[in-house]
Design brief:
The chain is an alpha+beta fold. 39% of the residues lie in helices and 17% in strands. It has 26 helices and 35 strands. The strands form ten sheets. Strands 1, 23, 24, 25, 26 and 27 form a six-stranded mixed beta sheet that branches. Strands 3-4-7-8-9 form a five-stranded antiparallel beta sheet, with helices on one face. Helix 5 packs across helix 6.
């Protein structure tokens, strides 16, 4: 019964796998992988079974007819007596069991075999052997696998032969003269097996010569002086010696003595110990260490050049950058195009805010860390914080949780929510330009249903006949069917496995161990099974040879919500390239978010972002696009899995506009550049100019994680205009020092041309700060925030007092992302600070923005105000966040009970005439908001401090008077609530 049930479960799982791959159009991937694995299993298993069985059978077949009469053989009689009745079973069972283990191990090497069979040249040679690098990447792992396999199988065969010969008297350990301790048959049999084993070992020694190019040392990866001059020659000597000893063993067939091969074997072991271990140690101690810098220079230089090539760093633009530290009015005028691109909405903080303002119902959710993108709004590129309103089954009331609801009613999320990255309301909330249910905003018409996402249920059963009832909850709204307060829908896509066949329902019932799949009336002839719905999971299944970025991101592309997943080809066989642990170098402070993962564990020394993968959020379609078409690894895999990867020319212009430089690749590269920005062997040897990635100062603890890289639009020195970029900062390697030493940015904008990316895409630019001068680093900036000087023009208290008061009054202060920008011929720090009340429904609101330049620090409730404060009253540029509360499109989320029917979405309120922030009226409104906020803070800090509150109200009255004087049309001006003027229902004050 156990066997039958096991086979039934295995068969059902395998069949559903075929059905799934057929649905997504990647059946050949599964077939190729299974055929390769089964072939390896059978070849390795049959070869192992045949060799071990032959060793056992030959030893038994050529046993002595009469066992020698010795005490030793007499003791073995009982073993022979016990073995003879079951000998045939043992001779079959032992090889079979061992063959299963060896075959399974061989099947796991399917990627190594496929790469070898589809190997491609790199077009570059390694610096020592002058062999194409493709040999090290594709061929060397295959030959090493064969050596290991042959060593294992021959070793098992030798053990089996020795035991059998010993039990049946062909081999004796004592009691006879030396010349007759083995029979002729045993001597020939064992000498042949030992000779074969030594020949394989000789091949292993020879192959080890090439693997020295990937040896890890304390300073570099690759061969050092000792490896080249001591280890490498000994490997050659040992290979020749192993061949000679193998010939010695074969000679016993004629010499009839084991003396010569045993002496040769002992000599081989001695040579291996002396030449393989002692001699290299002596060379390292006596020759290298006294002159290490000179002797290792050649090999360090090889490592520098190979590492930079393997990680795509050979074209980094490195610039010496001497930042200004003095501030003066108008200093940012030359960077006026960059300042509006400063993102003050932190995607890792505002998810609860999105949830409260745009979640609509508890069964909708947003990811812990939202995504950053660039969209065109009103003809201008806008840095955007974007999120999908996904399904959250945990938000359904407990009395509504059952199998039908979980898997056939609550099946999908609904809509995209997008906010300006550089704007916030007067209350500190994001300003949404795509919002609500049904969607309203600037992204145009698109399919809003999210059936495939990062938080989708494990499986849902959707679809039905055209004339049947709609079962799936689409979104909550009034009038959605007999006054139920919800609109229902029937899935119209083809992204699932058809479930009309009773056998398929049975297979899935077995797979998911759920009898309801077989019995439920909710499943009909048109139903489809949607499973494996997480974007990374879908891509990983259709392309198991790729490593995937830990942060897929959504985009609205050609009327569809599309997940974009960056994928990498990696290797650990690139000669002389630095080895890195992927899981460690891609980890930063964002890994605590549920939807942010690392690229995964494993050591590599070569990586390329070779594939851009997309997953349609509505029908789950997976498409792989070649992104680095010259990558030999991608070429090999594309040949192994034909037609699985589409050429770059198939990428549409709209999809191209949303592709960006991947985060995990950038993390790996920034770690490598922390040392390999040094280009000379002498400087690399001393290590005095090594860096490390800046720690995230917003995370406490003794060992804070790395600061995550940030996407933002900046204009690097020497570049004509701002570009959407990915940035990071460096500080000196070593404990205690926190000053800034370097700044790295990569052009992350792929462009908008179909099938062709921008020429500058992926260009890395490194700013190296002077070594003889210290500049404030992120940690020092954060320390200044906690001990800030008084900033009387912004608030009548110091920043540190503001933080302390909010922390003491039951609120939580959240430090936002710390951005660094090379502007004003210097470096500008920008950090938003959020305050969140303690309570179940509280959410973070951005209250202040802190900026620093050189040794000066300032803060205000807006970025514009902080910059003006920092640069003597006028920064020379406008960030655009002052007065953002009046921006059109910042509608409150409507009560779902008031939402109109689908197809007739509620029209947004007529927006007020936009106010030019640079105009006199715009400035007055900004002053009104600042005065109002000052009054509220005065009350919050000390409810009895009526003097400070009165001063704020006086400034508010003056600002209102200026706004009235600047409004010749006589229209109304809406300002935050205060004590003057009439108050409307929303708690806002109108000036006449």
């Amino acid at each position: 019964m156990a066997v039958v049930l096991g086979l039934l479960t295995w068969g059902a799982t395998l069949w559903t796998e075929f059905l799934w791959y057929e649905t997504v159009g990647f059946r050949e991937v599964l077939v190729t992988r299974l055929v390769t694995q089964v072939s390896l299993f059978l070849i390795a298993g049959l070869f192992t079974a045949a060799l071990i069985w032959s060793a056992l059978w030959l030893a038994w077949r050529h046993r002595p007819i009469y066992a020698p009469s010795t005490p030793e053989q007499a003791a073995l009689d009982r073993y022979r007596s016990a073995l003879d009745p079951v000998r045939k079973l043992v001779f079959v069972a032992v090889p079979t069991v061992l063959a299963l283990f060896v075959g399974t191990a061989a099947a796991s090497q399917w990627q190594t075999v496929l790469l070898f069979l589809n190997r491609q040249p790199f077009g570059e040679v390694d610096p020592h052997f002058e062999i194409d690098i493709g040999f090290f990447v594709f061929s060397l792992p295959f030959w090493q696998m064969l050596v290991s396999f042959a060593t294992l199988v021959l070793g098992l065969s030798l053990i089996g032969a020795l035991l059998t010969h010993y039990i049946y008297g062909g081999l004796q350990l004592q009691g006879q003269p030396r010349g007759s301790r083995t029979t002729k048959a045993a001597r020939i049999h064992l000498s042949v097996l030992l000779a074969l084993l030594l020949l394989v070992r000789a091949g292993g020694y020879w192959i080890e010569r090439y693997s020295l190019s990937m040896t890890q040392h304390a300073r570099i990866t690759g061969m050092t002086y000792t490896d080249v001059n001591a280890v490498l020659p000994t490997r050659t000597i040992l290979a020749v010696a192993a061949i000679l000893v193998a010939l010695f063993f074969l000679s016993t067939i004629w010499s009839k003595t084991w003396r010569l091969p045993i002496v040769g074997l002992v000599g081989l072991v001695v040579v291996a110990l002396l030449l393989g271990g002692l001699y290299p140690s002596l060379v390292q101690s006596l020759r290298v260490r006294p002159s290490e810098a000179q002797l290792e220079a050649t090999y360090i230089q090889r490592a520098i050049e190979s590492t930079r090539a393997a990680y795509g760093l050979d074209d980094v633009e490195s610039v010496d950058y001497d930042p200004r530290v003095e501030v003066e009015p108008g200093q940012l005028r030359a960077d006026a195009d960059t300042i509006p691109g400063i993102r003050i909405v932190d995607p890792s903080v505002v998810s609860p805010t999105f949830r409260q303002l745009q979640g609509v119902r508890n069964y909708y959710q947003f990811s812990d860390a939202l995504d950053v993108a660039s969209y065109e709004v009103d003809g201008e590129a806008v840095d955007t914080v974007i999120a999908l309103r996904e399904l959250n089954l945990d938000g359904i009331p407990a009395d509504q949780r059952n199998w039908v609801n979980d898997h056939t009613v609550y099946t999908h999320g609904f809509g995209v929510v997008a906010a300006y990255g550089n704007r916030r309301s007067a209350e500190g909330e994001p300003i949404f330009y795509e919002r609500n249910i049904p969607p309203v905003g600037e992204l145009g018409d698109y399919e809003p249903r999210i059936y495939f996402g990062e938080n989708s249920p494990p499986y849902s059963i959707v679809g039905g006949p055209e004339d049947g009832p709609d079962r799936e909850l689409d979104y909550p709204a009034s009038g959605g069917g007999a006054g139920t307060g919800e609109v229902r829908n029937t899935y119209q896509g083809d992204g699932g496995v058809p479930m009309g066949d009773m056998l398929r329902r049975l297979a899935y019932a077995i797979k998911y161990r759920e009898v309801n799949i077989l019995l439920s009336d909710s499943i009909n002839s048109e139903s489809q099974m949607l499973d494996h719905r997480e974007p990374r999971d879908r891509v990983e299944r259709v392309a198991p040879w790729l490593r995937l970025d830990g942060n897929p991101y959504p985009a609205v592309v050609d009327g569809r919500v599309t997940w974009i997943v960056d994928a990498y080809t990696v290797s650990d066989r690139y000669p002389y390239s630095q080895m890195e642990e992927l899981g460690e170098v891609t980890e930063d402070s964002l890994q605590s978010a549920q939807n942010i993962q690392t690229i995964g564990p494993g050591q590599v020394n070569y990586i390329r972002n070779s594939v851009k993968a997309t997953v349609d959020a509505f029908d789950g379609t997976v498409t792989l696009y070649a992104w680095d078409e010259e990558d030999p690894l991608l070429m090999a895999w594309s040949q192994a899995f034909e037609n699985s990867v589409q050429p770059m020319s198939e990428i549409s212009s709209e999809l191209m506009s949303h592709l960006r430089y991947p985060e995990d690749l950038f993390k790996v590269q920034r770690e490598i550049l922390s040392r390999y920005h040094v280009e000379t062997a002498d400087a690399f040897f001393t290590g005095q100019d090594f860096w490390r990635t800046s720690e995230d100062p917003s995370v406490g603890g003794d060992n804070p994680p790395d600061i995550p890289p940030h996407y933002l639009s900046i204009q690097m020195p020497g570049v004509d205009e701002p570009q959407f970029s990915l940035t990071t900062t460096y500080i000196p390697r070593g404990a205690g020092r926190q000053n800034l030493t370097g700044y790295l940015a990569v052009d992350a904008n792929a462009g908008t041309q179909a099938g062709e990316r921008r020429e500058d895409f992926g260009q890395l630019r490194l700013l190296t700060l002077p070594r003889e001068t210290t500049f404030r680093g992120p940690g020092q900036f954060q320390n200044d925030i906690e001990s800030s000087p008084e900033n009387s023009e912004a608030f009548a208290q110091t920043l540190s007092q503001f933080l302390s008061l909010n922390r003491q009054q039951g609120s939580e202060v959240i430090l936002g992302n710390l951005l660094t920008l090379p502007v004003g011929d210097g470096l500008l720090y920008v950090e938003p600070i959020y305050v969140q009340a303690r309570g179940g429904s509280a959410y973070p609101l951005q209250r202040v923005v802190v900026v620093a330049f050189g040794n000066e620090l300032a803060w205000s409730d807006t970025l514009d105000g902080a910059l003006d404060e920092l640069f003597g009253g006028d920064s020379g540029a406008t960030a655009g966040d002052a007065g953002a509360a009046g921006e059109p499109g910042q509608d409150a989320v409507p009560d779902p009970g008031e939402t109109e029917e689908p197809g007739d979405p509620a029209e947004p309120a007529e927006p007020a005439e936009p106010v030019d922030p640079a105009s006199e009226l715009g400035q007055a409104i900004a002053e009104i908001e600042a005065a109002y906020e000052a009054g509220q803070r005065a009350l919050a800090s000390d409810p009895q401090d009526w003097e400070a509150y009165g001063e704020a109200q006086e400034r508010l009255r003056q600002a209102i008077d200026r706004a009235v004087a600047a409004n010749p049309a006589g229209g109304s001006v809406t300002v935050p609530g205060g004590t003057d003027g009439g108050t409307d229902d929303a708690g806002q004050t109108e000036a006449p």
